[in-house]
Amino acid sequence: MRVKEFLSRKGIPFKEYDVAKDERARKEMFLKTGRLAVPTLVVNGRVAVGYNPEELESLLREARH
Length: 65
What we know:
By secondary structure, the protein is α+β, with helices and mostly antiparallel strands. The chain has helices at 2-9, 23-33, 53-64, and strands spanning 40-43, 46-49. It has a single domain (2-64), classed as Glutaredoxin, CATH 3.40.30. Helices cover 48% and strands 12% of the residues.
C-alpha cells in the first residue's frame, strides 16, 4: 500500500497486478526478479523489489531523462 500511496502522491500512473490471482503476472515477476516478492516495480525496464523511497526516487529521476 505504501508504494501505491507514494506513486499517487507524485502523480505517477501505475498498473497494478495481483500476482496471487494472475498466474501470467506472477511468472513474469519471477522471470524479472528470480523471486516472488511484493511489491515489485518496473520503471523504464529497471526492477525494484520492496518499498524503498530513495531507490524509487532514483528510478523515477532516471526515467525522466
